[in-house]
Amino acid sequence: MPGRKDIAVKQSIPLHLRYSVQDFNREFPDDDACLMYIFEQRWPGGIAHCEKCKKETKHHRVTGRTAFACDRCGWHIYPLAGTIFEKSSTSLQKWFHAMYQMGSTRCGISAKQIQRETSVTYKTAWRMFKQIRSLLSDGDLQLEGPTVEMDETYIGGRLRIGSAGRRRMRNKTRVAGIVERKGKIVAKTATETGGKQLLDLAGAHILPESTVYTDEYMAYNNLADLKKDGKPLGYTHKRIHHASKIYVVGDVHTNTVEGFWSLLKRGIGGVYHSVSQKYLQTYLDEYTFRYNRRDQGNLIFKSILEQVSRRAVD
Questions:
Q1: pTM for the whole structure
Q2: What is the mean pLDDT of each run of 10 residues along the chain (314 residues)?
Q3: What's the rounded Cα separation, in Å, for the pair 310 and 293?
């Protein structure tokens, strides 16, 4: 009721998965705290291989530099080398803040908002997001099944008004998605026409003997007969006929993957407004990365930080 101030707002994220802005500011108040976190991730306990000593030795921080020196000989190592932060003049704490924001939203966050919150230029904010997205890929993720849904959708394009007032969308990009029910998802741009690319995606990401649910699209006609390395994959293929306006028959439906398409399109349309075909896959990676870690609450941010060290090039 209006005027009531004693009504508690229900928190949907479990207590152990919450990581608020206050928590972020306490853990990462400045660049030094961020640097120490990366150092500890790459070399737990400060023990790293010294190129000069040829041994695993303890390293300590070099004052005023982003370097750590070997306790035995003084040889320097650089935690930011080989990471997306290398040679960046932007504050490390601002990089962490951008990662925190990207991990704390379902529909994404714009570079314009990061520009406002961190006082960097729009060009810098856009570049930061581009670099962070390069980390957010699960690669050739193997879905565990045994029950998956597969579907495709179209992203982007421009509305064209043709003859007789016909409205058509041009230059759309086809995207294919495969999702485990109550599990993870894979989403890839599918630029080839026909069904070969869709079947190749199925063979690459779906375990043999899985049950696969699709709509009536004819590209899936040979799904049950699909082979890999000459061996039948043994898929059980069940279909729902959307053209007849039938969307659920018992457990036969593609509602899970269509729910992800809805989230993706709301994010791209509402936050980014438009995405070029050139960068679309990186946006798909961002959304699937968060979706696949949706049980982590606000701690998705820590998963993004783990990717920094995992992708570091020595």
A1: 0.87
A2: 52 80 95 97 94 94 95 94 94 96 88 92 94 90 91 78 55 91 94 84 94 94 92 95 94 96 91 85 94 91 93 74
A3: 17
Q: How many residues are there in the chain?
A: 314
Q: What is the 3-state secondary structure of the chain?
A: CCCCCCCCCCCCCCHHHCCCHHHHHHHCCCHHHHHHHHHHHHCHHHEEEECCCCEEEEEEECCCCCCEEECCCCCEECCCCCCCCCCCCCCHHHHHHHHHHHHCCCCCCCHHHHHHHHCCCHHHHHHHHHHHHCCCCCCCCCCCCCEEEEEEEEECCEEEECHHHCEEEECCEEEEEEEECCCCEEEEECCCCCCHHHHHHHHHHCCCCCEEEECCCHHHCCHHHCEECCEECCCEEEECCHHHCCCCECCECCHHHHHHHHHHHHHHHHHHCCCCHHHHHHHHHHHHHHHCCHHHHHHHHHHHHHHHHHCCCC
Please name each of the domains of the chain with its CATH number.
15-43+79-138+298-310 (no CATH), 147-282 (3.30.420)
